[in-house]
Specification:
Helices cover 48% and strands 14% of the residues. By secondary structure, the protein is an alpha+beta fold. A 5-stranded mixed sheet has the order 1-3-2-4-5, with helices on both faces. A hairpin with a 2-residue loop joins strand 4 and strand 5. The radius of gyration is 16 Å and the shape is globular. The protein starts with 10 loop residues before the first strand and ends with a helix.
Length: 177
């Protein structure tokens, strides 16, 4: 089964990996941070072996508490995914520090710590709109929302994030049968 991927600028792993793990996320969302940390624990070996491709879709979901995420998403350099993932790793690791910054403080952090542009990268506005359109088309209501080979998994409560490794294990088991 071939999955037609949209908005796959931030991906790890081979394009021909049989399992596609797509996650709609927002850098300001504490749940997205938990989920991202879990991803870093359970996926690397499978990405390295060529079984899984991981696609992170930074979704500018319209909620006040996610606005700082939007500001960051608009300043990232998607044309350099390796560096962008390094920045995302650090931003999730330090989320508790910058989550309450005002926009000027956040922009200053992005410029001084990460060498990003103070103003949004023009192409990122279009990218944001495309991810939002995809989220609407795929009925993404919450971040994080997970898709494995196109099958949607939403997590209304953080305690059910523990199901994530089971979803990955089931996808890997299907691959081996």
């Amino acid at each position: 089964m071939t999955i037609q991927l949209k908005n796959d600028q931030l991906k790890l792993g081979l394009d021909d990996a049989p399992i596609k793990v797509e996650v709609f996320s927002n850098l300001s969302c504490p749940g997205s941070k938990i989920f991202y940390d879990m991803t870093k624990d359970i996926l690397p070996a499978h990405i390295e072996s060529g079984k899984i491709q991981y696609i992170l879709k930074l979704y500018d979901k319209p909620r006040e508490e996610l606005l700082n995420g939007l500001l960051v998403h608009l300043c990232l350099e998607y044309n350099n995914p390796t560096r962008t993932f390094e920045i995302i790793d650090d931003l999730f690791a330090t989320q508790d520090e910058w989550i309450h910054y005002n926009s000027a403080e956040l922009k200053q952090l992005l410029v001084t710590k990460y060498g990003l542009h103070e103003e949004e990268v023009e192409a990122n506005t279009e990218r944001s709109l495309q991810v939002t359109l995809e989220a609407i088309e795929r009925d993404v209501k919450l971040v994080p929302t997970l898709f494995i080979n196109g099958e949607k998994h939403s997590f209304k409560e953080r305690r059910v994030y523990s199901e994530y490794p089971d979803y990955i294990a089931a996808a890997l088991e299907k691959l081996n049968t």
